[in-house]
Fold this protein.
Amino acid sequence: MSSSLFTPIQLGALRLSNRIVVSPMCQYSAEQGSASAWHAVHLGQMAQSGAGLLLLEATAVEDIGRITPGCLGLYSDANESALARVLDIARKAGTLPMGVQLSHAGRKASSARPWDGGALLDAAHGGWTPVAPSALAHADGEAAPAELDAAGLARIREAFVRAAQRAVRLGLQAIELHVAHGYLLHQFLSPLANARSDAYGGSAQARMRYPLEVYDAVRQAVPDAVAVGVRVSATDWVPGGLEIGQTVEFAHELARRGCAWIDVSSGGVSPRQQIPVGPGYQVHLAQAVREATGLPTMAVGLITEPRQAEEIVREGRADMVALARAMLWDPRWPWHAAAALGASLEVPPQYWRSEPREARGVFAHARVGQR
Ligand SMILES: Cc1cc2nc3c(=O)[nH]c(=O)nc-3n(C[C@H](O)[C@H](O)[C@H](O)COP(=O)(O)O)c2cc1C
């Protein structure tokens, strides 16, 4: 039986050769937002993975939108040229399409790297004052962010546009807007972070306004050939927070605007969240969005086994699966999934000779001549 996971899919103008997406993963290894040698190794490795799409980590659209001082950015000429060098290397390693996740961390900005504890940093420790929809701290005891005024909203919307234009110049074929995990655009959607009394707060409709304005501005600024999708946190997992019904409404608005995909994650806006973590724990949320809107949908979260991924796609619970930790653990996960599912995929010719006897045929074009 042919594999659903290894069936191509079209996202707007972009064709993926299979349904496996390398989920965005912060590396906290940039210098003033500029990609480093680490990124060349990391992205080069992921480019060899055989996945259908590689999404670069959350990439800040302005410096105070970085989660940590080590986060990647696309807000300066220096950032753009550093990423150009890294992408050039990654493209020599693999031929898969690449996209970037554009982000602003809002009130979760100015934090220490996870391996340095992740706490908010004050100015004395290299931090800055974060901005947010409302002056509400993420966690009890933390300093409150500054509330964005109209000029701030316009500045950040324009920063998304400029970063998207930089992404286009870099030849990236997809842009994912980060509206998840408690960062700025999710903060607007969530009643737990948005207490505004202007046109951007209050009803669910009003809370969607700013993320939709950013989506519209980005979509308008980039050519049709570039696919623009969105990652959402479908639920805050906190009573009184964002829940799946509101997310479906938001997804309907995105579908009306021709959004190329929706990537359905959850949580991140409140330390009070109670997440029932387990294999495929967010797949039902992706399924709800997909069934309601018909948008091409990515499921993510503890999808680790080839047969599990295959069933999610075959049963129509999602159109694609995004994998994060499993890809770090096993950067050849798609090769091994293809072998397990009797499918084939393209791999770099330098590695063709690795094809094991029992998996013969898994490399689509392997023809090894030897003297
Ligand atoms: C090291 C690491 C960095 C991450 N960085 C991002 C990020 O930049 N943007 C994002 O949306 N999610 C990020 N995530 C979340 C993953 O994309 C993914 O949604 C989550 O890990 C669940 O999928 P998994 O079980 O396959 O790891 C990160 C996860 C990890 C492990």
